[in-house]
Amino acid sequence: MKQHKQDRRSQRTYHLVTTALLALLAEKRYESITVQDILERANIGRSTFYTHYFDKEDVLESIAEQMLETFGQQFSQRNVGQGIVPGLELFQHVQQNHQYFQALLRGHAGEVLWEAAQAALSRTIEQALTSTSANRRPPSIPLAVISQYLAGSFLHLLKWWLRAEMPYTPEQMESIFQQLALPGVWATVEEKSE
Fold first, then answer.
1. pLDDT tens per residue across all 194 residues of the chain
2. 8-56 CATH
């Protein structure tokens, strides 16, 4: 991605372009969206677009970075007592922005963003696990493996919830995830040395 400028006009352009791409993703697949479609939706000129972005892939990466930054800020404000997976916050966030996340279930755009979410969530979980098991014997399964497992399980459940049109509340989904995924993880992390 090109260097982000901090002036007001540049920030306005970033907002217009990312909002335009997200709106277009709600209407059609990423692969069929052109830069011209983005320009028309954002109501900006081609030179303005190319001053800030290389191509539509660059816009998509910018959206992924913004999402991860937002998630990162939310996760950093949590304490360990709130659990190792920020499930409730994520289910609530997805529910509040479901039209965009529904669009991201399809095609290449979704793959890019879901992979970025997997990496960020896995890092967050590993940090939480590291702090909860700091004074214990290392578990038999490496924390990086446990983190990948939990992040993947959570995101697959989240995708199912979206595809099923969110038949349960975020609180119910958090409880379901806690019951399904965490007992085995806690048993592994809290193993006693013999």
1. 666 667 888 899 999 999 999 889 888 888 899 999 999 999 999 999 999 999 999 998 888 788 777 776 766 665 545 578 888 888 998 899 887 788 777 777 778 788 888 888 898 889 888 887 777 777 888 999 999 999 999 999 999 999 999 999 999 999 999 999 888 888 887 765 44
2. 1.10.10
Q: How far apart are CA 122 and CA 82, in angstroms?
A: 16
pTM comes to 0.77
> How far, in whole angstroms, is CA 83 from its chain's centroid?
18
124: nearest Cα among 171, 87, 162: 87
Task: Name, in order, each residue with C-beta under 8 angstroms of 135's C-beta and a sequence gap of 6 or more.
Answer: none
Q: Give Cα 35 distance to the centre of its chain.
A: 24
Helix, strand, coil % (nearest 5) of the chain?
75, 0, 25
Burial class (CB in 10 A: 0-12, 13-18, 19+), 175: middle
Domain ranges across the chain: 8-56, 61-189
What does the DSSP 8-state code read for residue 182?
H
- The Cα–Cα gap between 110 and 132 comes to 32
